[in-house]
Give the backbone structure.
Amino acid sequence: MSKDRKQIEEQMDRFFWLTLRMVIRGISILSLVIVFGLIFMLAEDHISEMWNNFTHSIEVKSQPLKQYEKSETREVVNGIHQETGLAYGVGFSTVKKVCLSCHSSALITQNKATAEGWDQMLTWMQKTQGLPALGKDRKVIVDYLSKNYGPVDTGRRPNLPVEEIEWYVLELE
C-alpha cells in the first residue's frame, strides 16, 4: 500500500471518530433538553404555584406597616398589644417593624436590660445575625426596650449586712 493511501485512510479514520463523538455529544445534549422539558411540563403547575407564593410574600412584606395595624388583632389590653404581646407605647411600631421581621416578640419580652444592655444586644445582632444599620431608628428602639423591658426591682429583700451579724460557733459533741 502506498504511503499516500495509508495517510488518507488514517485521516478518514480520525474523521470518522471525530464525527461519531460529535454525533454522540449532540444526542446527549438533545436527550438532556428533552428530559428537562418533560420535567418542566410535568411540574409546571407546581412551579407556577411556587412562583405565585413567592411573589405574594414579596407583596405582603412590602406593604406599609399601617395596613397591618388596621387588622382586627390591633387591640390593646392593659397596655399590651394583643397581636404581638409587646407593651404598647412610643416606639412600638418601630420595634414591631424592625425587630419582629426577624424574630418573635418572646425574644424581647424574656430579656431585661438597661439602655446600654439593649444597645449592646443590637450591636451583637448587627455583627453576628445580619441586622442592618438602624440609623435614627436605633435610639427609638433602645428607648422603647429600656423603658418597657428594663431591669425590674422584684421586691426581693436586700442582702443581709454580713458585717453587722453577731456570729456564733456551733459546738458539736
User: Anything to note?
Assistant: Strands lie at 76-77, 80-81.
